[in-house]
Amino acid sequence: MxxxxxxxTIYLTSPVFFEIANHPKVSKKFSQxxxxxxxxxxxxxxxxxxxxxxPSTTKIIQDITKFQVDFIGCHISHPIKKEIMEIPTIKAVCxxxxxxxxxxxxxxxxxxxxxxILHKSVADFTIALxxxxxxxxxxxxxxxxxxxxxxxxKWDLDENLTNILDNLTVGIIGLGEIGTELxxxxxxxxxxxxxxxxxxxxxxxxxxxxxxYYSDIKEVLQQSQVISLHVPLNSSTKGMxxxxxxxxxxxxxxxxxxxxxxxxxxxxxxxLLKKKEISIHLAFDVYPEEPINPEILEEFKIIQKMRPELxxxxxxxxASSDADTRAQMSIMMLEDLLTFANSxxxxxxxxxxxxxELRNLITEKNLKKVEKEWKSYxxxxxxxxxx
Length: 387
Hints:
Blueprint: E1 9-12, H1 16-19, H2 28-44, E2 46-49, H3 57-67, E3 71-74, H4 82-85, E4 92-95, E5 110-112, H5 119-134, H6 137-145, E6 169-173, H7 177-186, E7 192-196, H8 202-207, E8 211-214, H9 217-223, E9 226-229, H10 243-246, E10 253-257, H11 266-274, E11 280-284, H12 294-306, E12 312-314, H13 323-342, H14 364-367, H15 370-374, H16 378-383
Parallel strand pairs: 1-2, 1-3, 3-4, 4-5, 6-7, 6-9, 7-8, 9-10, 10-11, 11-12
Helix pairs in contact: 2-13, 5-7, 11-12
C-alpha cells in the first residue's frame, strides 16, 4: 500500500449537520456526539463546510474544485448531479437521508445513506396525516378559526361527518422499514391491512393476522380505502401511480404519500381530478419538485374550489422532522465520513452504510476478492496509490 500524501478533504454542503447539535429539542447525548464527531473529522481531514444552507450546484462545484474534495456530505436539498460525480477527486458521497434519488449513481464513486433511523418518525407522521384527513381536521380548524362556529351550529355539523379508520381497509405500497413500522402501529387496532411489495414478509403476517399480502399492486389499490406509499424512488417506481392505477381507486379513497413525489404521476392526477373522472382525497408530504412548483399548487387550489368535497392536506416535506431523528441521521452520515477518511483498505468499510446497490461490496465473500470488485472505484487508487 502506498503513502497518502495529504489529509483527505471532506466537504459538507450545509452547516445544518452541526447546527442541529445546538437545537433545544435535540437530546444532550446526540448533541455531544455530533460535536465529538466534528472534532474527530477536524483531526483526520481538511473539513470544509458550506456557509450556505442551500448552495447551488454551481457553488458546490466551485467549492469542490477549489478545495480538491475527496468526500461529500449532503442531504436531499443538495442534488449531487452528474457533473459533480465526474470531478475526479470525488471518491464517496454520504447523504443524510434514507432515500438517495438526489445523488447521481456513478460506477466510480461510493454512496452511503442513513437507513433504520427515520422509519418510526415517518410512520407516526403518516398516521397523523391519515387521521387528520379522514376526520377533516384542517377544515374544521379553519371553520372555527375563521369565526364560522355560530350558535345555530353548536354541535350538529352534519355536512362535516367523517369516517373513523376502524371501518376502512388500509393498503400499503412498499413494506420496507417505514411500511413495516406503519403495520406495527396500525395492526394492533384490528384494522384490515393489505400490502404490496416485491418481497413477501411472512414473519410479519404470522404476527399480525389482519395483514394480507398481494403480489399484484392492482388488488391492493382496488380493495383499499386508504393507500399509503412507501417505496424508494428509482427507475422502476417513478410514476408507478399513474392514470391506470389512479382509475383503480374507489371513490373517496385517501391517497397518502410520504415517500417521494415522483412516485405519483402528478400530471395524470391533476387531469383526472379536474375532469372529475376520479374522486379521491390527498395527504402529501412530498412532491416532484421541492419546494412544490407554484403552478402545480395553483392547479390543486383550482381543483379544491371546483370540488370542495375533496380533502387535501399538503405538508412541506416534514415527515422525518423529529429533532432526535434528524440528529441521528447527521451522526450516521458523519460517522461514515469519518470511516472513509480513516480507511486504508476495503475491510475498513465493513460497518459503513452503503446504499443497497453497493452493499455486496462489503460482504465477506467480496472482501476476499477485493481487486476484482473494488479496483474500478476511485477510492482504490487513494488507498493503493503508487509513487
